[in-house]
Amino acid sequence: MDGVHDLGGKQGHGSIDNAVDETAFHERWEAIVFALTNVAAELGVLRNTDQFRHAIERIDPVAYLSHTYYGRWLGGLENLLVEGGILTQAQIRARIEVLGYDSTGLVAARPSTEPDVVDYDAEHHVSSRPLEDQPKFRVGDGVLTRGTPSTGHTRLPAYARGKRGEVVMWHDGWVLPDSNAHGRGENPEHLYTVAFDGGELWGDAAEPRTVVHVDLFESYLIL
Description:
The protein is α+β, with helices and mostly antiparallel strands and about 220 residues long. About 30% of the residues lie in helices and about 15% in strands.
């Protein structure tokens, strides 16, 4: 979906801090959020990774930019718990007040009033799926990515839409996140790695000789 979370390829957000030997959890609450996420899976409100990613995409934009990694997890988890009927938004707000925080403060969760959960296949350990149909594209083919905006979850980043690239690898079939995130079935598609010249993506602002490889599903591509 199009939103503030789609930061790939965007400028102005500063350098990336690659910490060496970073601990898994910096504070105890982060470990609790991680554990609660597994509990949500046991409760059946978290059905697959694509659904969880989409729940995180839908948190308040200010929270997405200002909260930490596990802070965003918590907001996405709250979305799912409210949509799954486990909590209410009012209960989340009340808990904030009990903890002594400003009752008008920012709450990351923005649950949908009409969650589009239709059905989910059982979660598998891997997302690869064998396909009987032949791939539409082959290694070496020039392709154009679709440039249309997305109203739901997608793995086609905004910076790579409407751009020309070359197929450099084929990965057989994989679960389509655009469908799986919304409970509309796995609908596996052929997956490709597409190479884009930096100039194609960012014009004259690109570093010389930059090449970006993006894994893209067949429905994202046209000849």
